[in-house]
Amino acid sequence: MRIAVLTGAGISAESGIRTFRASDGLWEDHRIEDVATPEGFARDPDLVHRFYNQRRATAAAAEPNAAHRALARLAGHAQLTLITQNVDDLHERGGSEAVIHMHGTLTGALCAACDHRWQAPAVMSPSDPCPACGKPSTRPDIVWFGEMPYRMEEIWEAVAKADLFAAIGTSGQVYPAAGLAQHARRCGARTVELNLATSAVSRDFDDHLVGPASEIVPLWVDRLIAESRA
User: What subcellular compartments does it reside in (predicted)?
Assistant: First the structure.
Protein backbone atom coordinates (compact mmCIF):
# COMPACT_ATOMS: atom_id res chain seq x y z
CA MET A 1 0.00 0.00 0.00
CA ARG A 2 1.19 3.48 -0.82
CA ILE A 3 0.59 5.85 2.09
CA ALA A 4 1.24 9.60 2.24
CA VAL A 5 1.26 11.16 5.69
CA LEU A 6 1.26 14.87 6.48
CA THR A 7 2.15 15.90 10.01
CA GLY A 8 1.73 19.25 11.71
CA ALA A 9 2.45 20.88 15.03
CA GLY A 10 0.05 18.62 16.91
CA ILE A 11 2.32 15.60 16.60
CA SER A 12 5.20 17.39 18.34
CA ALA A 13 3.12 19.22 20.97
CA GLU A 14 3.30 16.26 23.36
CA SER A 15 7.09 16.41 23.09
CA GLY A 16 6.98 19.92 24.55
CA ILE A 17 7.15 21.96 21.36
CA ARG A 18 4.49 24.64 21.32
CA THR A 19 1.96 24.58 18.53
CA PHE A 20 2.09 27.11 15.75
CA ARG A 21 -0.14 29.86 17.02
CA ALA A 22 -1.58 30.58 20.45
CA SER A 23 -5.13 31.82 20.99
CA ASP A 24 -3.87 35.39 21.21
CA GLY A 25 -2.46 35.21 17.68
CA LEU A 26 1.18 35.19 18.80
CA TRP A 27 3.81 32.63 17.94
CA GLU A 28 5.86 31.91 21.06
CA ASP A 29 5.11 35.46 22.27
CA HIS A 30 6.08 37.16 18.99
CA ARG A 31 4.01 38.55 16.14
CA ILE A 32 4.14 36.28 13.09
CA GLU A 33 5.04 39.29 10.93
CA ASP A 34 8.13 39.96 13.03
CA VAL A 35 9.69 36.50 13.10
CA ALA A 36 8.28 34.49 10.20
CA THR A 37 8.39 36.73 7.13
CA PRO A 38 11.19 37.96 4.86
CA GLU A 39 10.12 41.52 5.74
CA GLY A 40 10.50 40.83 9.46
CA PHE A 41 13.98 39.45 8.87
CA ALA A 42 14.93 42.52 6.84
CA ARG A 43 13.69 44.83 9.62
CA ASP A 44 15.31 43.07 12.57
CA PRO A 45 17.54 40.10 11.73
CA ASP A 46 18.89 40.01 15.30
CA LEU A 47 15.39 39.40 16.68
CA VAL A 48 14.69 36.68 14.12
CA HIS A 49 17.95 34.88 14.85
CA ARG A 50 17.34 35.07 18.60
CA PHE A 51 13.89 33.62 18.05
CA TYR A 52 15.15 30.68 16.01
CA ASN A 53 18.14 30.11 18.28
CA GLN A 54 15.64 29.60 21.10
CA ARG A 55 13.44 27.36 18.99
CA ARG A 56 16.50 25.33 17.98
CA ALA A 57 17.43 24.84 21.64
CA THR A 58 13.88 23.84 22.54
CA ALA A 59 13.70 21.32 19.72
CA ALA A 60 17.10 19.85 20.60
CA ALA A 61 15.95 19.28 24.19
CA ALA A 62 12.68 17.61 23.12
CA GLU A 63 12.31 13.87 22.66
CA PRO A 64 10.29 11.99 20.01
CA ASN A 65 7.01 10.64 21.31
CA ALA A 66 5.05 7.47 20.55
CA ALA A 67 3.45 9.02 17.46
CA HIS A 68 6.83 9.79 15.86
CA ARG A 69 8.08 6.27 16.61
CA ALA A 70 4.88 4.67 15.30
CA LEU A 71 5.29 6.33 11.90
CA ALA A 72 8.83 5.00 11.74
CA ARG A 73 7.41 1.50 12.30
CA LEU A 74 4.85 2.00 9.57
CA ALA A 75 7.59 2.63 7.02
CA GLY A 76 8.64 -0.99 7.39
CA HIS A 77 5.23 -2.25 6.28
CA ALA A 78 4.12 0.18 3.57
CA GLN A 79 5.45 2.44 0.85
CA LEU A 80 5.37 5.54 3.02
CA THR A 81 5.96 9.16 2.06
CA LEU A 82 6.27 11.22 5.24
CA ILE A 83 5.70 14.95 4.76
CA THR A 84 5.90 17.37 7.65
CA GLN A 85 5.12 21.02 8.19
CA ASN A 86 7.27 20.89 11.32
CA VAL A 87 10.77 22.29 11.41
CA ASP A 88 11.99 20.08 14.27
CA ASP A 89 13.86 16.81 13.67
CA LEU A 90 11.74 14.59 15.93
CA HIS A 91 10.64 12.36 13.06
CA GLU A 92 14.26 11.60 12.22
CA ARG A 93 15.19 11.03 15.84
CA GLY A 94 12.12 8.82 16.16
CA GLY A 95 13.52 6.54 13.46
CA SER A 96 12.03 7.89 10.21
CA GLU A 97 14.18 8.34 7.14
CA ALA A 98 13.78 10.52 4.05
CA VAL A 99 11.36 12.94 5.72
CA ILE A 100 10.15 15.75 3.45
CA HIS A 101 10.35 19.02 5.42
CA MET A 102 8.16 21.28 3.32
CA HIS A 103 8.77 24.28 5.62
CA GLY A 104 12.49 23.74 6.16
CA THR A 105 14.36 22.71 9.30
CA LEU A 106 15.81 24.32 12.40
CA THR A 107 18.96 22.26 11.83
CA GLY A 108 19.62 24.02 8.53
CA ALA A 109 21.24 27.34 7.64
CA LEU A 110 20.77 29.18 4.35
CA CYS A 111 22.68 31.97 2.65
CA ALA A 112 20.28 34.66 1.49
CA ALA A 113 22.87 35.81 -1.05
CA CYS A 114 23.88 32.61 -2.86
CA ASP A 115 21.37 29.98 -1.58
CA HIS A 116 24.12 27.78 -0.16
CA ARG A 117 22.89 25.47 2.62
CA TRP A 118 24.77 23.97 5.56
CA GLN A 119 24.23 22.46 8.99
CA ALA A 120 23.14 25.16 11.40
CA PRO A 121 25.15 25.67 14.59
CA ALA A 122 23.26 25.92 17.87
CA VAL A 123 23.50 29.72 17.75
CA MET A 124 23.44 31.86 14.61
CA SER A 125 23.65 35.61 14.04
CA PRO A 126 23.23 37.95 11.05
CA SER A 127 26.98 38.53 10.88
CA ASP A 128 27.83 34.87 10.34
CA PRO A 129 29.62 34.48 6.98
CA CYS A 130 28.36 32.02 4.41
CA PRO A 131 30.84 29.10 4.09
CA ALA A 132 30.51 29.29 0.29
CA CYS A 133 30.49 32.98 -0.66
CA GLY A 134 31.68 34.59 2.57
CA LYS A 135 28.88 37.15 2.73
CA PRO A 136 27.22 37.89 6.10
CA SER A 137 23.84 36.73 4.79
CA THR A 138 23.06 33.80 7.08
CA ARG A 139 19.42 33.05 7.79
CA PRO A 140 17.56 30.00 9.11
CA ASP A 141 16.64 27.48 6.40
CA ILE A 142 12.96 27.99 7.23
CA VAL A 143 10.14 28.69 4.78
CA TRP A 144 8.51 31.92 5.94
CA PHE A 145 5.12 33.36 5.03
CA GLY A 146 5.27 34.63 1.47
CA GLU A 147 7.85 32.01 0.43
CA MET A 148 7.27 28.79 -1.52
CA PRO A 149 7.40 25.54 0.48
CA TYR A 150 10.10 23.08 -0.48
CA ARG A 151 9.71 20.04 -2.76
CA MET A 152 6.09 20.77 -3.68
CA GLU A 153 6.23 18.97 -7.04
CA GLU A 154 7.45 15.83 -5.28
CA ILE A 155 4.77 16.20 -2.60
CA TRP A 156 1.88 16.62 -5.04
CA GLU A 157 3.05 13.58 -6.99
CA ALA A 158 3.37 11.37 -3.90
CA VAL A 159 -0.08 12.39 -2.67
CA ALA A 160 -1.62 11.79 -6.09
CA LYS A 161 -0.23 8.25 -6.17
CA ALA A 162 -1.23 7.35 -2.61
CA ASP A 163 -3.86 4.74 -1.76
CA LEU A 164 -4.25 6.32 1.67
CA PHE A 165 -3.59 9.90 2.78
CA ALA A 166 -3.42 10.82 6.47
CA ALA A 167 -3.08 14.20 8.15
CA ILE A 168 -1.87 14.13 11.75
CA GLY A 169 -1.98 17.11 14.11
CA THR A 170 -2.60 19.72 11.42
CA SER A 171 -4.83 22.78 11.67
CA GLY A 172 -5.78 22.84 8.00
CA GLN A 173 -5.23 26.60 7.92
CA VAL A 174 -1.89 26.87 6.11
CA TYR A 175 -1.75 26.33 2.37
CA PRO A 176 -0.64 24.57 0.27
CA ALA A 177 -0.47 21.84 2.96
CA ALA A 178 -4.16 22.30 3.73
CA GLY A 179 -5.02 21.40 0.13
CA LEU A 180 -3.28 18.02 0.12
CA ALA A 181 -6.25 16.04 1.48
CA GLN A 182 -8.55 17.34 -1.21
CA HIS A 183 -5.92 16.55 -3.84
CA ALA A 184 -5.54 13.00 -2.49
CA ARG A 185 -9.28 12.42 -2.44
CA ARG A 186 -9.66 13.75 -5.96
CA CYS A 187 -7.00 11.28 -7.10
CA GLY A 188 -8.82 8.34 -5.53
CA ALA A 189 -7.13 7.94 -2.15
CA ARG A 190 -8.95 7.24 1.09
CA THR A 191 -8.33 10.07 3.55
CA VAL A 192 -8.10 10.05 7.33
CA GLU A 193 -7.59 12.85 9.82
CA LEU A 194 -5.97 12.19 13.20
CA ASN A 195 -6.26 15.21 15.47
CA LEU A 196 -7.29 16.55 18.84
CA ALA A 197 -10.27 18.21 17.18
CA THR A 198 -11.71 18.80 13.74
CA SER A 199 -9.60 21.00 11.49
CA ALA A 200 -10.53 23.70 9.01
CA VAL A 201 -10.54 21.07 6.23
CA SER A 202 -12.16 18.13 8.04
CA ARG A 203 -14.73 17.87 5.26
CA ASP A 204 -11.96 16.57 2.97
CA PHE A 205 -11.48 13.42 5.05
CA ASP A 206 -13.39 10.14 4.90
CA ASP A 207 -12.43 9.09 8.42
CA HIS A 208 -11.62 10.93 11.65
CA LEU A 209 -9.71 9.72 14.69
CA VAL A 210 -9.85 12.13 17.62
CA GLY A 211 -7.39 12.24 20.50
CA PRO A 212 -3.78 12.92 21.45
CA ALA A 213 -1.37 11.91 18.70
CA SER A 214 0.73 9.77 21.06
CA GLU A 215 -2.35 7.62 21.71
CA ILE A 216 -4.25 7.45 18.43
CA VAL A 217 -1.36 7.28 15.97
CA PRO A 218 0.22 4.09 17.42
CA LEU A 219 -3.20 2.39 17.45
CA TRP A 220 -3.85 3.44 13.86
CA VAL A 221 -0.41 2.23 12.77
CA ASP A 222 -0.90 -1.11 14.55
CA ARG A 223 -4.16 -1.59 12.67
CA LEU A 224 -2.56 -0.80 9.31
CA ILE A 225 0.31 -3.19 9.99
CA ALA A 226 -2.13 -5.95 10.99
CA GLU A 227 -4.12 -5.39 7.80
CA SER A 228 -0.95 -5.56 5.72
CA ARG A 229 -0.17 -8.98 7.20
CA ALA A 230 -3.67 -10.39 6.74
Answer: Cytoplasm
The answer on 184 and 90 residing in a single domain is yes
| Residues 138 and 218 placed together within one structural domain of the fold | no
Residues with a known catalytic role: 103
Q: Which of 2, 10, 47, 45 is nearest to 29 (CA)?
A: 47
- List, as residue ranges, the binding site for Zn(2+): 111, 114, 130, 133
Domain region containing 29: 18-61+107-142
Same domain? For 91 and 56 the reply is no
Residues at the binding site for substrate are: 52, 55
35-82: pLDDT as tens digits: 999 999 999 999 999 999 999 999 999 999 999 999 999 999 999 999
